[in-house]
UniProtKB/TrEMBL annotation, chain A:
Designated name of the protein: Pyruvate dehydrogenase E1 component alpha subunit
Top-level taxonomy: Bacteria, Bacillati, Actinomycetota, Actinomycetes, Pseudonocardiales
GO molecular function: magnesium ion binding; pyruvate dehydrogenase (acetyl-transferring) activity
Cofactor(s) demanded: thiamine diphosphate
Keyword line: Oxidoreductase, Pyruvate, Thiamine pyrophosphate
UniProt organism field: Saccharothrix texasensis
GO BP, sorted A to Z: pyruvate decarboxylation to acetyl-CoA
Annotated Dehydrogenase E1 component domain residues: 22-313
From TrEMBL, chain B:
Cofactor(s) needed: thiamine diphosphate
Keywords, comma-separated and alphabetical: Oxidoreductase, Pyruvate, Thiamine pyrophosphate
Xref: SUPFAM superfamilies: Thiamin diphosphate-binding fold (THDP-binding), TK C-terminal domain-like
Domain of life: Bacteria
UniProt keyword Isomerase present: no
Designated name of the protein: Pyruvate dehydrogenase E1 component beta subunit
Length: 333, 322
């Protein structure tokens, strides 16, 4: 316990804090993949392994009352923003104790108490929601910032570009974070993106930078600059993080046996591991203690998720209407 | 007593709700100048922070409203033409509507989508004349189609106050309907409660939107001969099934008149539900647009695909003959 407290005492934007976040996401994802294999998580997941530095760096620049929206590959963002790992894992396993009471699963994890306005399974869909939330927060007189995470595939979605225009036009406190992992499922970014990703932001007059998305500190520095600017009324920015996805697009990929990356590419991509890059900035003792802390947290999360009850099917459509309206049942008789 | 038009009733509902609740704001294309007249005067009274002119970015501003709603706002979006709902279908059906359930009840999305000028507008042809309310009802998005000025006021007011997304279709053919009405009598109208415009014994005519006025006219014409009850559901989803059942318990005969496409339309749902659960003495009949209709430009062609009074009269005669 003394160990946990010691680790938790480090701010998320410190070297230890950043390492703890990348390590937590890594172990969470590895264990989640195991739970997919064992059948405890049905439907599969989009693993975030390799991309941890982006979530860790960006969220370390945020306050609890800042907001994020996320994607189909969202666990890292959700954990980095402060959601409880146990309730996040319970959501992935479809349990009643999950963040979304088992109604959302991997691709919709949301935790409004931590400023997580929801992961979104429609590529590019979250940017406009983020802009609206940022606008409303500013109207309330607050200085919160809202961040939209999305992949390189999303930059070809019209609605995201519309959202960038609104955010820039109205100088909304919004940060557009593109995780360029080189692929949209199997399609390479060079086969998909005309011009550049930062060019999308520049077209709307937004400060747009490209950073090393494998290095949590590099991401944090860029995010902090953009967040500070947004908070001060300077409007939105775009940060493109060059990163690499270590694993499959989705856990089904192993079964589908699709081939689109050669072994050399994956091997060299994995050489720049954010866990190692950030770990090298810690003393040996620090690293050992964080690793032990994370292991305990993830073990507890797995136990909590698997011990949690499944939701009662009678309530399958609970929360369909915020007003509590009940839909007609579909069964015959 | 003063006259109130349907269009003015929508305007009054917006004014009253903006004044009542600071969380309400209006956004859309040309809403400041009020090209549709529905938002007339709002900018002057409530200022640019409550009345937002948006760029032509339907998908973005529809989800922008969702994001604002997640932060406690009650946005009202005005769509210039019903076809824009197809562009924003993802944002309404797949995002706004699904947020409450998918988050396990952590949030609500009280956005109102107001579509003044839905259905055929003379001479506007294929891409401006659809009446796609059944799509939203099918998806489970609360969907209302007021027929009268007082219901337009009452239902729009309720939609804005409702904690869920609600689409409000204001049929083009109803916008100029006027009633002699004491403005102080305007009040919210609950969703899912139908209205009997005319009592009758022989047949129930369920009419949606502007067709309520046609149904009442046909009922008057047939008065000496047939006693027609005109039932206006007002909300197509949720639908007032109890109100329909009560009417059918009296008449046992059903005709539905609905200005949208036949296949998978509201009329189909009303017929199916009546067949499942009500005592019909003869098979019901529906009067609709044809399957998958695209409204043609030339006036005669346009009218040929819309339900009319002659078809309704024939349908009533048909269910009475058996
Ligand atoms: C609008 C849309 N199109 C297609 C899909 C199917 N799909 C899910 S993830 C994905 C790839 C997304 O690539 P990218 O945005 O680069 O994110 P990454 O998976 O690399 O994190 C696709 C095509 C979808 N969910 N939404």
């Amino acid at each position: 316990m003394a160990l946990l407290t010691a680790v938790a005492a480090h701010a998320p934007d410190s070297d230890v804090g950043l390492y703890r976040t990348v390590r937590l996401i890594r172990r969470f994802e590895e264990r989640a993949v195991e739970l997919v294999r064992s059948g405890d998580i049905i439907g599969g997941i989009h693993p975030y392994t390799g991309q941890e530095a982006v979530a860790a760096g960006v969220c370390a620049a945020l306050r609890v009352d800042d907001m994020i929206t996320s994607t189909h590959r969202g666990h890292g963002h959700v954990l980095a923003k402060g959601a409880d790992p146990a309730r996040t894992l319970a959501e992935l396993a479809g349990r009643a104790t999950g963040l979304n009471r088992g109604r959302g699963g991997s691709m919709h994890a949301a935790d409004f108490g931590s400023g997580i306005l929801g992961a979104n399974a429609i590529v590019g869909a979250n940017g406009a929601i983020t802009a609206g939330a940022a606008w409303a927060a500013r109207q309330d007189g607050g200085d919160q910032v809202a961040v939209s995470f999305f992949g390189d595939g999303a930059v070809n979605q019209g609605v995201l570009l519309e959202a960038m225009n609104l955010a820039a036009l109205w100088r909304l406190p919004t940060l557009f974070v593109c995780e360029n992992n080189g692929y949209a499922t199997t399609l390479t970014v060079t086969d998909a993106v005309a011009g550049t990703i930062t060019g999308r932001g520049e077209a709307f007059g937004m400060p747009s930078v490209t950073v090393d998305g494998m290095d949590p500190r590099a991401v944090l520095d860029a995010a902090r600059e953009a967040v500070d600017r947004a908070r001060a009324g300077g409007g939105p920015s775009l940060v493109e993080c060059l990163t690499y996805r270590f694993d499959a697009h989705h856990t089904w990929e192993h079964k589908a046996r699709v081939r689109y990356r050669d072994d050399d590419e994956v091997r060299s991509g994995r050489e720049r591991d954010p866990v190692e890059i950030q770990g090298a900035r810690l003393t040996c003792d620090e690293r050992t203690s964080v690793d032990a802390d994370v292991e305990a947290v993830v073990d507890a999360a797995v136990a909590f998720a698997l011990d949690s009850p499944h939701p009662d099917p009678v309530g399958a459509l609970d929360h369909l209407y915020a007003t509590g309206m009940r839909a007609r049942p579909g069964g015959g008789g | 007593m003063p006259w109130l038009s349907y269009r003015k009733a929508l305007n009054r509902a917006l004014v009253d709700e903006l004044a009542r609740d600071p969380a309400v704001f209006v956004l859309g294309e040309d809403v400041r100048v009020a090209v549709s007249n529905v938002t007339a005067g709002l900018l002057k009274r409530f200022g640019p922070d409550r009345v937002l002119d948006t760029p032509l970015s339907e998908q973005a501003f529809t989800s922008f409203a969702t994001g604002a709603a997640l932060r406690g706002r009650r946005p009202v979006i005005e769509f210039q033409i019903p076809a824009l709902l197809y562009l924003a279908f993802e944002q309404i059906v797949n995002q706004a509507h699904k947020f409450s359930l998918m988050t396990g009840g952590q949030t609500r999305v009280p956005v109102t989508y107001l579509v003044p000028g839905s259905g055929s507008r003379t001479g506007w042809a294929g891409q401006h004349s659809d009446h796609p309310y059944a799509l939203f009802a099918h998806a489970g998005v609360k969907t209302v189609v007021p027929a009268t000025p007082e219901d337009a006021y009452g239902l729009l007011t309720t939609a804005i106050r409702d904690d869920d997304p609600v689409v409000v279709f204001a049929p083009a053919a109803a916008l100029d309907v006027r009633v002699d009405l004491d403005h102080d009598g305007l009040a919210p109208v609950p969703l899912g409660v139908g209205r009997v415009h005319r009592e009758g014994e022989d047949v129930t005519v369920v009419a949606v939107g502007h067709l309520v006025h046609d149904a009442v006219a046909v009922a008057e014409e047939l008065a000496g001969d047939v006693s027609v009850e005109v039932f206006d559901p007002r909300t197509v989803y949720p639908f007032d099934w109890d109100g329909l059942a009560a009417s059918l318990a009296k008449t046992g005969r059903l005709v539905v008149v609905d200005d949208s496409n036949r296949m998978c339309g509201i009329a189909a749902e009303v017929l199916a539900t009546a067949a499942e659960g009500c005592d019909l003495v003869v098979p019901p009949v529906r009067v609709t647009r044809p399957d998958g209709a695209v409204v043609p430009f030339a006036r005669g062609l346009d009218l040929a695909v819309q339900p009319d009074r002659a078809q309704l009269t024939a349908a009533i005669r048909k269910v009475l003959k058996q």
